[in-house]
Amino acid sequence: MKNIQGQSARKSRHTISRVTALRSETRKYVWDVCKKNYYDYGINAFWLDNSEPDYGVYDFDHYRYIEGPALSCSNIYPQLYSRVFYDNMKDLGDVPSTFEAFYDQLQAGLNMGLAGIPWWTTDIGGFMTDDVNDPDFQQLLIRWYEFAVYSAVLRMHGDRGPYNIPMLDDRDFGGGCLHTGQPNELWSYGEENYKIMKKYYDIRIEMHDYIKKLYDEASENVQGTEKSMKAARRSTPMHRSIRSRYLNENS
Questions:
Q1: Separation CA 81–CA 3 (nearest Å)
Q2: What are phi and psi of 63, to 5 degrees?
Q3: N or C: which end of the chain has fewer CB within 10 A?
Q4: β 159-160/128-129 pair status
């Protein structure tokens, strides 16, 4: 980013280059570098400072981005700069198959509702499972399924162990060298579990028109449907103290 004389927009004894966050290709490149060197090592908090960006002299009418004069596009720069990380971290990611993660997902969903964001969902049973035959996991799966039935998107999604299915071929590259997880359909967990999930699947189908109406209204009115008791119309001090219940409705 330079001024109309071709000089750096920030006065410093060091040479400083600014990324052009207005370009999607640049945002992807910056994220790929940060993911490789930080995020993949468990560092998931980033301080996004100087997103104005930080000028030496704030002569906006003299500065030029690759997209055009600063006066025509400067205000969008901080948002797009932040989206380098936001767009790649807003997905809650591959959550573990634990009751603690399930609780966290419920809290996340309620906060999304409070923020007026209706299109939210979760991985039923968590994404990472060591053993699909573990009774504790199967109980977690059932409870998670019963919750997810009322979400915008209902999906059985996860990487299921144990990984004892032979690989597709003996090559050490390409898709053939990736392990295959266990089946993850409703009927993959035994007859008793299937009966429970089928019962709630039928409820989902019966509620289809109602759920569709909720999310149509939510999309038009910018509001969430999974409302915490605190946000409900009949909110009372008791309701405001409840952090794990909600109403599936629009105001």
A1: 20
A2: -90, 150
A3: C
A4: parallel
Tens-digit pLDDT profile for residues 131-178: 999 999 999 999 999 999 888 788 888 889 998 988 777 766 655 566
Catalytic residue status for 52: yes
> Are 2 and 64 a contacting pair, CB within 8 Å?
yes
> What sign does the CA torsion over 156, 157, 161, 165 have?
positive
Query: Which among 54, 59, 94, 169 is annotated as catalytic?
Result: 94
- Give the residue among 146, 151, 154 at the shortest CA–CA distance from 195: 146
Q: Of the residues 49, 91, 209, 220, which is catalytic? A: 49
Known catalytic residue at 94: yes
Residues 6+ apart with CB under 8 A from 199: none
Structure token digits, residue 148: 């997810």
Locate 73 and state its tokens: 């596009």
